[in-house]
Amino acid sequence: MHTDAPKEGLEKANKYVLSRKLDQIFVNLAEVYRFVVRFFQEVFLPPYEWQEVINQCFQVGVRSLPLISLTGFIIGIVFTNQSRPSLADLGATALLPALIAVAIVRALAPLVTALIAAGRVGSNIGAELGSMKVTEQIDAMEVSAVNPFKFLVVSRVLATTFMIPTLTMYTMIVALMGGYVNIHANELTSFKSYINQVFDAITFLDIFSSVIKAFVFGFTIGIVGCYKGYNSSKGTEGVGKAANSSVVTSMFLVFIEELLILQIVNALRG
Amino acid sequence: MKENIKIDTTNKVITIKGLKKSFGELDVLKGVDMDLYQGENLVVLGRSGTGKSVLIKIIAGLLQPDEGSVNVLNHEITGINEKEMDALRLKIGFSFQNSALYDSMTVRENLEFPLRRHEKELSENEINQRVEELLEDVGLSQTINQMPSQLSGGQRKRIGIARTLILKPEIMLYDEPTAGLDPITSMDINNLINEVQQKFHSSSIIITHDLTCAKITGDRIVMLLDGQFQRQGTFDEVFTTEDERVKAFYDYNFTD
Ligand SMILES: Nc1ncnc2c1ncn2[C@@H]1O[C@H](COP(=O)(O)OP(=O)(O)OP(=O)(O)O)[C@@H](O)[C@H]1O
Ligand SMILES: [Mg+2]
User: Where does the sequence pass through the membrane (chain A) (predicted)?
Assistant: First the structure.
């Protein structure tokens, strides 16, 4: 309810355990932790704002679909094209469909989708909630006894958490199509045989771990954008900052999560 | 000027005693005592940054007091839980300094927003009716499908007031209802505040530094100076004084 509380306490005490900056980092971490906990407390409790969740899902889709389509397709073409010479050196161009399938499904699609969504959706959430905070719209919800956290934060985080995996699957398909276009043009492989080779190369674990990864990315992008916006400082400058740091922070976290999940999945592969 | 106003001075809807609030080193409210009687319009005057907004934000539970007691409709709000506070908030209307309309929603959706969530038994027809009636009350029926960004400052203020009225609050809190408006639009708002008082029999706190607004809407006026209420009474009582700080306030309002 009172987002200014921890900062206030810190300033009032006016002494710092380590240094001002380090203390602030820990205070922020504690705040983020509480924000995430609050999300899990409220997501299961009625009333549910389904309409708003659907509306936000739609926003996430509309915002990122054009850019994801274009980027996914081009990455498929370019990646295939750039991989060809190395395989050709080994006389193994026949393995091209298998190679790009694995690369796209395991790594490229979730990462590209998440990065684009962080830029398009994360910044938008940060700016939107930031300006609602600054213009007291969040306070207005609160005084009309509507829980702004539920209406604004829960709906957006749910939307990104479910839409990023959906979009990731879409990116896989589009990028594989890009790969096909390039392979068909060069090796004259038929669509049917391309698809067969693709599905031979990837396993259920590949797809499953990518979707799980995308869930984590989606949750991260939603939570970070909402947190930054919800706690943005007063003034128009605060809104810009919220949007900007949403993107930077969520991209940074996406990379870290990518590395962590990679380790886990590798361990599972044995 | 005002007729048919019944003020029940035996019935206090808000009682504040020894209220203190600071932000870090900055002491904003330093012991405020205040009563609001059923049916009255209480005007709180004070210069920018004296903590007028902070005062009503505490009443609406948006900020926590540091010290003192704040009793609203027989509920002590210090230490109240979220659920009780929400129940109380349904009886309090808060008109924000900058209107705070939801700018992703149309005027209609702005008004429906609290209604749909708190009076679920209403049919679509009844909701429409309530919205249209209220828009007529504030004289803005034609804006029903517009977005807030398409409205003028005065229109936004009135829509903001309409949105708070839709749940029929017992207490209205107006934060600088006429700030930034031209004198004629200000007059419309002043009249609207008086109409609300008459029609809904609500009790109101009106925060302002516009003395015309204070004079027209206020049944009683208090002045917030240095974190405390220094003077109170009718408009003339408050300004019949030798206190330089009060006189300065009056002079600047009417001589610039
Ligand atoms: N959430 C907050 N955190 C820190 N300081 C705050 C907060 N809210 C208000 N203040 C400070 O408290 C003081 C009083 O603010 P307040 O908004 O109540 O002034 P005001 O009397 O309403 O002035 P104005 O007429 O300009 O609206 C200001 O100095 C402001 O900086
Ligand atoms: Mg103010």
Answer: 65-82, 94-118, 157-181, 201-227, 247-268
Q: What is the pLDDT of residue B238?
A: 81
Question: In one letter, which amino acid is A201?
Answer: A
Please give the distance, rounded to the nearest whole angstrom, from the Cα atom of residue A66 to the centre of ligand 1: 44
Residues A11, A140 within the same domain: no
Return the CATH number of the domain spanning residue range B11-100+157-254.
Answer: 3.40.50.300
**Judgement on whether residues A34 and A60 belong to the same structural domain of the protein:** no
> How would DSSP label each residue in B213-254?
HHHHH-SEEEEEETTEEEEEESHHHHHSS--HHHHHHHHHHH
Q: Are residues A125 and A96 in the same domain?
A: yes
N- to C-terminal Cα distance for chain A?
47
Protein residue with its CA nearest to atom 18 in ligand 1: B51
Chain B interface disruption, residue of A12, A138, A143, A234, most B CBs within 10 A: A143
Q: How remote is the CA of residue B43 from the centroid of ligand 1, in Å?
A: 18
- Which portions of chain A are predicted below pLDDT 50? 1-9, 12
User: Nearest CA to B16 among B171, B126, B156?
Assistant: B171
Is the distance from CB of A71 to CB of A173 less than 8 angstroms? no
Nearest ligand 1 atom to alpha carbon B179: 25
Residues A234 and A131 in one domain: yes
Q: Which two tokens stand for residue A41?
A: 């407390």
Output the pLDDT for position B253.
67
A161-196 pLDDT per residue, tens: 999 999 999 999 999 999 999 999 999 999 999 999
DSSP H helices, A91-154, are: 96-102, 109-117, 123-134, 137-143, 148
Strands B92-95 and B203-208: unpaired
Do A121 and A246 reside in the same domain of the chain?
Answer: yes
Domain that holds residue A98: 49-269
Residues A31 and A138 in one domain: no
Q: How many domains does chain A have?
A: 2
Are residues A12 and A56 located together in one domain of the fold?
Answer: no
Give the single-character DSSP code of B167.
Answer: T
The pTM is what?
Answer: 0.90
Determine the distance from the C-alpha atom of residue A151 to the mean position of all C-alpha atoms in its chain, rounded to a whole number.
Answer: 20
CA distances A186 to A89, A93, A98, A189, A199, Å, are: 16, 10, 16, 8, 21
Residue range B223-238, pLDDT digits in tens: 998 888 888 888 888 8
